[in-house]
Amino acid sequence: MVERISKAVTNAMIERHAIDPAEREIYEYGFQITFSSVISFFLYLQCVLMLAPGSSFLKSDNVMNNLMPWSPLMAEKCKI
């Protein structure tokens, strides 16, 4: 899905002469990375916001460590 959207955005920009067609692959890759990062961020944020209210892990001294994407707790709860 991200690949298809990236190609569509790149094609639209080429049609509007905003980018050079010779650099198509570079822009497609850049859009894929950007869109994937944005989607991942919002999925992570959604998970944090769903876990936070009333959760016992927030009472821990390591609250911020528990909320980090690399935390074992977040990996387990959010499947990231």
Main attributes of the structure:
single chain; 80 residues; mainly alpha; rod-shaped
Can you walk through the features of this model?
The radius of gyration is 18 Å and the shape is rod-shaped. The relative contact order is 0.11. α1 crosses α2 (about 25-50). It contains 4 helices and no strands. The longest helix is centred in the middle third of the chain and has 28 residues, at about 25-50. The mean pLDDT is about 85. By secondary structure, the protein is mainly α.
Report a brief summary of the structure.
This protein is an all-alpha fold and 80 residues long. Helix content is 68%, strand content 0%.
Distance N terminus to C terminus? 18 Å
Q: Structural class of the helix and strand makeup?
A: mainly alpha
The value of Rg in angstroms is 18 Å
Q: What portion of residues belong to β-strands?
A: under 5%
Number of strands: 0
